[in-house]
Amino acid sequence: MDQYHRCVLCNRSCGVNRSEGSRGFCEEGSTLRVAWAGIHRGEEPVLCGPGGSGTIFFTGCTLKCFFCQNYQLSRDGMGREITIETFASLCLRLQDAGVENINLVTGTQWIPSIVEGLSRAKDSGLRIPVLWNSSGFENDLALSLLEPLIDVYLPDLKTLDADFSKELFGTPRYPETATKAILRMVETRPPRFEEDRMVQGVIVRHLVLPGFLENTREVLKWFSRHLRYRAILSLMFQYTPLPAGVFPQAKVRASSSVEWGRGISEAEYHSVLDYLEEFGIRDGFVQEYAPVENLLPDFSRPDAFPKNLATPLWSWAESG
Ligand code: SF4
Asked: What pLDDT is stored for residue 251 in this prediction?
């Protein structure tokens, strides 16, 4: 596929030929790699409905947050090479299982393969909405490839601070890239619902980080100014410290000033709710406060999630 020959699929703009063995920041080649596919019931209610969300997790990442909750995929490279045909058939199997949508998680580094696979799946009868669930680090090329096929966007908006972005992701370009991408997503996909389910639109997710409330406040202020009534906000408090030995020795100023080893405190939770009031944000989803527990999935097992949260359909960890 042409886009892998001189890869600029994200704003890392590595320019490497992934088809001939060169690797860029994401460390991925040109054969699609997938880690897990199944029915997920833990997404926002407008996405889950009675059937659940048909979720496919890809290997690799263009951002690699050092606190990544899916570090096994983004940093450790768990996953298996599959053909475009297998990817298309996974989408159709999920649809046959009764899911409400196809939910593609962190696939920016695989856009050419995903576009081809989705096109084949649609030609073969895929009719349910397709969700693009990402870090929001998509450039214009990526979005122009995706737009004909994506119904609902689910981007993160992690920070608007270029210095913080450099510390967390090794690039200061995240805020400018993500805000531009989200505005384009909102422009091209105004919200549309069928019964209680979102079948078109944008849900912007923000994960609150312990000790960084000012970061959250700036994100909410921007959301209020640019996206209120045009997109839905989903505020997440599920930050979970990584297990001992997994947390990378990130060279970030933040690591010395923030207690990355703890979850969000109840006082922080209520402060963030006050921000919602301050900026007049009333539509959306806010996770309830719960003391931190281990919510990290384990993709080394087919049952990567607790049984009440997900049902596996395919896993890289299964034999055969
Ligand atoms: S997708 Fe990977 S190789 Fe391509 S520009 Fe982004 S990080 Fe670099």
From this structure: 47
Tokens 């054969």, residue located: 31
User: What's the pLDDT at 66?
Assistant: 79
Contact 24 CB / ligand 1 (< 6 Å): yes
195 is in which domain, residue-wise? 31-315
Q: Using pLDDT thresholds of 50, 70 and 90, give the confidence band for residue 248.
A: low
Q: How many structural domains does the chain have?
A: 1
Contact 57, 114 (CB under 8 A): no
| Nearest atom (ligand 1) to Cα of 8 | 5
5 Cα: distance to centroid of ligand 1 (angstroms): 11
Instruction: Tell me whether residue 56 is in a domain.
Output: yes
Is residue 159 domain-resident? yes
224 lines ligand 1 (CB under 6 A): no
- Asked whether 155 and 204 are in contact (CB, 8 A), the reply is yes
**Does residue 10 line the site of ligand 1, with CB under 6 A?**
yes
- The 10 Å CB-count burial string (b at 16+, else e) for 127-159 is ebbbbbbbbbbbbeebbebbeebbbbbbbbbbb
In a domain, 24, yes or no: no
Is residue 16 one of the residues assigned to a domain? no
| β pairing state of 130-134 and 101-105 | parallel
State if residue 231 touches ligand 1 by the CB under 6 angstroms criterion.
Answer: no
Residue 32: per-residue pLDDT: 98
Q: What is the CATH number of the domain that holds 294?
A: 3.20.20.70
